[in-house]
Write a structure and sequence with these properties.
By secondary structure, this protein is mainly α. The protein has a single domain, classed as MFS general substrate transporter like domains (Growth Hormone, Chain: A, Up-down Bundle). The protein is about 85% helix and about 0% strand. It is built from twelve helices and no strands. Helix 1 packs antiparallel against helix 9 and helix 3 packs parallel to helix 6. The longest helix has about 35 residues. The radius of gyration is 19 Å and the shape is globular. The model has no long low-confidence stretch (mean pLDDT about 90).
Length: about 250
């Protein structure tokens, strides 16, 4: 349980930390002469990750169902690593011009693709390794690891803000949390490589292809739509607190 949720912890940390530093990212990659416009471009880039999450859920989710949870979770971790490194290491707009925001957008799309399958993949794995009568408890650790990641990102941000000057945070300090996330990735690869295929997956004789999954989604569009609507309030409230509030505070 710890091995699988540790990867989920980092993925959600890397995915979320962008929102904490939207103001600094706006100045670094989206300078426009208009502070509001730059911020909106940065937040639009933050939102672009969410456009990729349904695609990641379908494409990478299919891969997880066919190749196994371990292989799929290693792939999502790799994609998140690529996306986070792209954002952390890209020079500013002042150095390389238009290439900078394009690289950052690409990195964010990789992050969204990964996150789209990570949450479902981890939840399914936890469900399949749960002891009888404890599926709810096991799967709840997927959400718990996300909240731990958010709290760690907040504490790290607070520490940096207390130790660095505002202009230092804007110029390079915001990259530190992303580098911290990247530095843990090799350890998490080792942990995830040690995961075993679950007996439930190994016993499954039939594994659906992409086309079959798409047909299932299409034939159950009402159920999918209701599920989406049920998650909207929690999601909006979550990012109101974790992304909008810090930005507004700054």
């Amino acid at each position: 349980m710890v091995r699988v949720t540790s990867g989920n912890y980092l993925e959600m940390y890397d995915f979320q930390v962008f929102g904490y530093y939207a103001g600094a990212i706006a100045i670094t990659f989206f300078p426009s002469g208009n502070e509001f416009l730059s911020l909106m471009l940065a937040l639009a880039n933050f939102g672009a990750g969410y456009l990729m999450r349904p695609l990641g859920a379908i494409v990478l989710g299919t891969y997880i169902d066919r190749r196994g949870r371990r292989a799929g979770l290693l792939l999502t971790l790799g994609l998140m690593a690529i996306g986070t490194l792209a954002i952390a290491c890209t020079p500013s707009y002042a150095f390389i011009g238009l290439i900078a925001p394009l690289l950052v957008v690409s990195g964010r799309l990789f992050q969204g693709l990964s996150a789209g399958a990570e949450v479902g993949g981890v939840s399914v794995y936890l469900s399949e390794i749960a002891t009888p009568g404890h599926k709810g408890f096991y799967v709840s650790w997927q959400g718990a690891s996300q909240q731990a990641a958010v709290m760690f990102a907040a504490v790290l941000g607070l520490t940096l803000t207390m130790r660095l000057k505002p202009d230092e945070m804007t110029m390079w300090g915001w990259r530190i949390p992303l580098v911290v996330g990247c530095s843990i990735i090799p350890l998490l690869f080792l942990l995830r490589r040690s995961l075993e295929k679950t007996p439930e997956f190994l016993d499954r004789k039939r594994r659906p292809a992409s086309g079959e999954i798409l047909r299932t989604l299409a034939s159950n569009w009402k159920l999918v739509g209701l599920g989406t609507m049920l998650s909207v309030m929690g999601t909006v409230s979550f990012y109101m607190i974790t992304a909008y509030t810090p930005t507004f505070g700054v």
